[in-house]
Write a structure and sequence with these properties.
255 residues; alpha/beta; TIM Barrel; globular
Length: 255
Amino acid sequence: MMAGRRPVVAGNWKMHLDVQGAAALARDVVRATSLARWCDVAVMPSAPLIAGVARVLEGTSVEWGGQDLAAEAQGAYTGDVSAAQLVSLGCRWVIVGHSERRKYHLEGDDVVKAKTVRALGAGLTPITCVGEQLSERKAGQTLHRIETQVRFGLGGLAPADAERVVIAYEPVWAIGTGETATPAQAEEVHEYIRRLWASMYGDTLAAKVRILYGGSVKASNAAELMGQKDVDGALVGGAALSANDFGEIVKAARV
């Protein structure tokens, strides 16, 4: 991680917890990260839990966001959550294009692009995810897959919007598997994304864009991963459900 880019550590709670459990975890996260002023810290509960978590986190240094949003502004889209609804709950962040959305909800790069644009238009900071399957990595297609996702899912933004996007590289084969990309593998892809961003938006914005690593991030590997020059933080899954582990990952961002 290079000086000048403020790290981000975001916890994706996925479809876990209930109202009481989410509030308790939020309180514990505040305690575990209360001294962290060196990075942005955020948690993303399931949509029905956001209001309760917000009440706990309001006035603390921990921010909150959504795990997804609709590409549409409003309307007859049963079960979807709009950007405006997230904003009304005090959200600052939203995850876009997570591999689980791409896989289980068949979201392609066109949908990811529309959701990213919708988030930016509402004043949310999108954490837009990219990543390759294990078969693609084995076939030597990792960088080709990443380029496709970045160019089609994040291309054509206004410079002011491109400056606000946060990108998360999540090797799909490492999500929830216990497998983790080596620091060198992570750095290779992060550096490639930064070069792509330079080709799309210029060197100045490429130097500013924050690129997170996601994929079985743990307290034990966070420091080494975030010690790479192009890794600017972490999108944390399972370890985010433990306030102590999450707090250790936040500490590791101080590199």
